[in-house]
Write a structure and sequence with these properties.
The complex is a heterodimer of chains A (about 325) and B (about 350).
Chain A lengths: L6 H23 L6 E3 L6 H5 L2 H10 L18 E3 L21 H4 L6 E6 L16 H18 L3 E4 L9 H10 L4 E8 L9 E7 L5 H10 L7 H11 L3 H24 L4 E8 L2 H4 L5 E8 L3 H7 L2 H23 L3
Parallel strand pairs in A: 3-4, 3-5, 5-8, 6-7
Antiparallel strand pairs in A: 1-2, 6-8
Helix pairs in contact in A: 3-7, 3-8, 5-12, 9-12
Chain B lengths: L6 E7 L4 E6 L4 E5 L2 E4 L2 H7 L4 E2 L1 H5 L4 E4 L2 E2 L2 E2 L4 H19 L5 E8 L5 H11 L5 E6 H9 L3 E8 L4 E7 L8 E4 L3 H15 L7 H11 L10 E6 L2 E6 L1 H9 L2 H13 L3 H8 L2 E4 L8 H10 L6 E3 L6 H12 L2 H6 L3
Parallel strand pairs in B: 1-9, 9-10, 11-16, 16-17
Antiparallel strand pairs in B: 1-2, 2-3, 4-5, 4-6, 7-8, 11-12, 12-13, 14-15
The chains are: A alpha/beta (about 325), B alpha/beta (about 350).
């Protein structure tokens, strides 16, 4: 092997061949297995559980799924997460981090054409805000516009639920997606952690129950201005948690989370991959297509806030979202 | 398949439109990725074969249950017939390569850059019993390896189902070094067919005819000649000018290609970006679209300039690269990769 080439070239070729063989071995042995890690329970579960409309919705549905919102939580039952850089492994059916079963998407490969992008908040609903004046509603709109540009370049039809600073209630955001016949719905938000400014991380949600109090509180905050009545919430939540859409939403969330984390870690290696999670965000409830809510960054962290003030960083986030969506789109076309 | 002394190394580019094989004995073959089985006893009597492959299948398609079993470079899921068709194509290529001799076959097969693990496993399953050792690699990596463009280069492999981009950074490419787009030969064909149908509703044509027109006349940029093709209209052969439609369809590749090149280049370490820009190589049958390399080179001007070259033999570049890998892999590698 490698006769007639320099030692450096020979070593390089050997390294590449070893890489190729290792890649094949990983595929044959189906490794690395998805390493699940579970977050420790938060102590203030009961206080958070009573919050707002979404929390009420979660309480309605939780018993059907074996979660007891007023029961003492056990570590194993709390908001499991999947590391976005690892493939999912097998797990129980009720585990939101478990891999989706073979779904109709695998049998009927589909083409993703129209994507509705939902910039979180707007108008009088500012979302989170830093003392320096950075406002979530402006960041989400900027990233959404950039994302729409990338998706259109890639051949998709991208539609925004709002293209200016205006209030659009959650119900109308879902209606826009449904009436426009969207194939995917991607809601963009920026996180805020009240329990520590040192926290920074990226997390992506799909619709499902959660008994993680942090998640419940987050959903409650995002579900304000919903436009839904309590009756609506009950009706909606009862119908959606176990359908095909949830499996596809989870797959989309995993693809987006993976690209976001990888992209941000190129600049900030310490950023935390908070994983793919299910939560009862109302904006995801009435959409009739795979839908996710991405918390693309964290305004409560000073370093993140500084980065978010830079257009290059927002461009990076938009690009990563686009890549994740395209990766998912390709996988469903392949029937994956 | 043990007990055979002589080893035949083969490289296979399993393509959506065409599949090619290159062997250590110097054989090179290419076949259209179509397989057809006679639809009934009458067809079987006329054809006198159990199965037809490639151009032969296309020519006799009215008598056949015709399958194009690969979609975007991958085996279509959900159809046993398509899996069987892939097996027929690979069996045909390996059979031609071995020429009936009892030899140990070690194969390297190229798959799209972002192929899912499940698809690789499916391909491995299909090839079980057909070869003695199997390594599956990303297609653009195979092209790069064959060209010895191993460091600070970018390969753009324009196939029928996918276009694969890969930046070689001196390591086996990871997910972040590669992109797979579904903007490729087939998407151009689909758009071209749509545009022709809109402008010339009276013309009758098939996607096979459109593919042939594109392969013969495809271009981007300013046309050098009118693209005139013949197709029936109300049963009468008619000449049609499809210059504008051809240009629009072929140029639909440019924005996603440019964006993806920029994207991958931005992820290269700054000191090497210029070297990568100056070492972009176009491969695959889609690379034969006239003017494509020039337009991509022009797009690189925005980043400070670059050089886009075309491989000498776009059809066999992938298979030849796979063969190089097969020949360079040592016994230890093959022991791990027994099929």
């Amino acid at each position: 092997m490698f006769e007639g080439i320099s030692g450096a070239d020979s070593r390089l070729k050997r390294r590449l061949l070893t890489g190729a063989v290792d890649d094949n071995l990983r595929a044959i042995e189906n490794r690395p297995a998805g390493r699940l890690h579970r977050r420790a329970p938060f102590p203030w579960l009961l206080a958070a559980a009573a919050l707002a409309v979404a929390a009420a919705g979660a309480l309605v549905v939780a018993p059907r799924l074996g979660f007891g919102p007023f029961a003492e939580p056990s570590p194993g039952s709390l908001a499991p997460t999947v590391r976005a850089d690892e493939p999912p492994s097998t797990g129980p059916a009720t585990d939101p981090a478990a891999p989706p079963p073979r779904t109709p998407g695998a049998v009927f490969p589909v083409r993703i054409e129209r994507i509705v992008i939902d910039p979180g908040h707007g108008g009088g609903d500012q979302g989170t805000k830093t003392p320096t004046g950075l406002i979530e509603k402006e960041i989400t709109l900027d990233v959404a516009r950039r994302l729409a540009g990338h998706l259109r370049t890639a051949g998709f039809d991208a539609v925004l639920t709002r293209d200016r600073d205006e209030r659009v209630v959650l119900r109308d955001r879902a209606r826009i997606a449904n009436e426009r016949g969207a194939d995917l719905f991607v809601s963009i938000h920026v996180n805020w952690f009240q329990d520590g400014r040192a926290n920074r991380g990226i997390e992506t949600y799909f619709l499902g129950p959660s008994d993680d109090p942090f998640v419940t509180r987050l959903a409650s905050a995002e579900n304000l201005e919903s436009g839904y009545s309590m009756t609506d919430v009950k009706r909606l939540l009862e119908s959606v948690y176990s359908d095909f859409r949830q499996d596809q939403s989870r797959a989309l969330a995993a693809a987006v989370q993976r690209r976001l984390v990888r992209s941000v870690r190129e600049l900030s290696p310490e950023v935390v991959d908070r994983g793919v999670k299910s939560a009862p965000f109302l904006v995801l409830v009435e959409t009739e297509m795979p839908a996710i809510l991405a918390e693309i960054s964290c305004l409560s962290n000073d370093e993140e806030a500084q980065l978010l003030a830079q257009s290059d960083y927002r461009e990076r986030l938009a690009r990563a979202l686009s890549e994740g969506i395209q990766s998912y789109s390709l996988s469903v076309r392949k029937g994956g | 398949m043990s007990g055979k002394g002589q080893v035949l190394s083969v490289g296979v580019d399993l393509g959506t439109s065409q599949s090619a094989i290159a062997t250590s004995s110097g054989e090179r073959h290419v076949v259209d990725s179509f397989v057809g089985w006679p639809v009934d006893m009458v067809a079987k009597k006329v054809i006198k074969k159990q199965v037809l492959i490639g151009a032969e299948a296309l020519e006799n398609r009215s008598l056949l249950d015709l399958h194009r079993p690969l979609e975007q470079g991958l085996i279509k899921e959900g159809s046993e017939k398509d899996v069987a068709a892939v097996r027929e194509i690979l069996g045909h290529l390996i059979g031609v390569a071995t020429n009936g001799k009892e030899v140990k076959v070690r194969a390297v097969v190229g798959a799209p850059a972002e192929t899912l693990r499940v698809n690789k496993q499916q391909l491995r399953q299909v090839m079980r019993g057909m070869v003695d050792g199997l390594i599956i690699v990303s297609e653009p990596f195979a092209v790069a390896y064959g060209l010895e463009a191993l460091l600070h280069t970018m390969i753009v492999d324009v196939g029928a189902g996918t276009t694969d981009f890969c930046v070689m950074k001196g390591r086996y490419p990871t997910e972040e070094d590669q992109r797979t787009l579904t903007k490729a030969g087939d998407s151009v064909d689909e758009l071209l067919a749509k545009l022709i149908a809109e402008r010339h509703p009276e013309i009758q044509f098939t996607i096979h005819m459109v593919r042939g027109w594109k392969e013969q006349h495809g271009f981007v940029g300013e046309p050098t000649d009118k693209v005139l093709v013949h197709a029936p209209a109300h049963g009468k052969s008619t000449q049609v000018d499809i210059t504008d439609e051809m240009r629009i369809a072929c140029e639909s590749l440019l924005p996603p290609f440019t964006e993806t090149m920029y994207d991958l280049l931005a992820a290269v370490e700054p000191e090497y970006q210029e070297r990568v820009r100056r070492n972009v190589t176009l491969a695959g049958r889609g690379a034969k679209i006239r003017g494509l390399a020039g337009r991509l080179e022009a797009a690189l001007e925005e980043l400070g300039g670059g050089k886009v070259a075309m491989v000498e033999d776009p059809v066999f570049a992938g298979a030849a690269g796979c063969l190089s890998i097969a020949l360079d892999a040592d016994e230890t590698d093959w022991e791990k990769m027994s099929a």
